[in-house]
């Protein structure tokens, strides 16, 4: 029987190194393109019901990126606003052409972009270093054995960032 911590199956998962910047990505149709010029602060999986619905999957995977490090090189956006579980408004930017959800711009963290990892040209390295809202996780959800797992996200983002730094200070 696999180990379970905070509702998550724990497993030894290979963790590729974070690639050198700049990182590039875009939407499904190619109209939106972007470049990230700073190393992400975290790779986070969110298991809340909102992220499940927004991603069409059992959880969403996101990069925490300093807002000044994100440069949009082409494309336009529609902005959808929703209220998160914290009560804060979360603007979500989507490609106006194909509707791909690109990133969130949380009002509670105006200097941060929560970028959808699947929009990276190469998301293969983006193994989450943290999982939040695992109390809502699917029964088959798996977290790397070294990932920070939080049942209900009541921590600060700094805890996620510090854990990312601890993991990657050893391997990259």
Automatic annotation (TrEMBL):
InterPro entries: CENP-V/GFA, Mss4-like_sf. Residues 23-126 form the CENP-V/GFA domain. GO terms for molecular function: carbon-sulfur lyase activity; metal ion binding. Keywords: Lyase, Metal-binding, Zinc. PANTHER family: CENP-V_GFA DOMAIN-CONTAINING PROTEIN-RELATED, GFA DOMAIN-CONTAINING PROTEIN. Belongs to the Gfa family. This is Aldehyde-activating protein. It comes from Hyphomonas adhaerens. The lineage of its organism: Bacteria, Pseudomonadati, Pseudomonadota, Alphaproteobacteria, Hyphomonadales.
């Amino acid at each position: 029987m696999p180990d379970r911590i905070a509702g998550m199956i724990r497993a030894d998962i290979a963790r590729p190194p974070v690639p050198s910047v700049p990182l590039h990505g875009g939407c499904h149709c190619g109209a939106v393109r972007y470049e990230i010029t700073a190393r992400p602060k975290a790779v986070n999986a969110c298991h809340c019901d909102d992220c499940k619905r927004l991603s069409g999957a059992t959880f969403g995977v996101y990069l925490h990126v300093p807002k000044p490090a994100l440069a949009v090189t082409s494309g336009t956006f529609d902005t959808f606003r929703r209220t998160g579980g914290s009560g804060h408004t979360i603007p979500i930017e989507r490609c106006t052409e194909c509707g791909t959800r690109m990133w969130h711009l949380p009002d509670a963290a105006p200097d941060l972009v929560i970028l959808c990892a699947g929009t990276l040209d190469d998301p293969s390295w983006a193994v989450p270093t943290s999982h939040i809202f695992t109390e809502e996780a699917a029964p088959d959800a798996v977290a790397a054995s070294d990932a920070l797992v939080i049942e209900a996200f009541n921590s600060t983002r700094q805890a996620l960032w510090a854990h990312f730094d601890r993991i990657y200070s050893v391997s990259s």
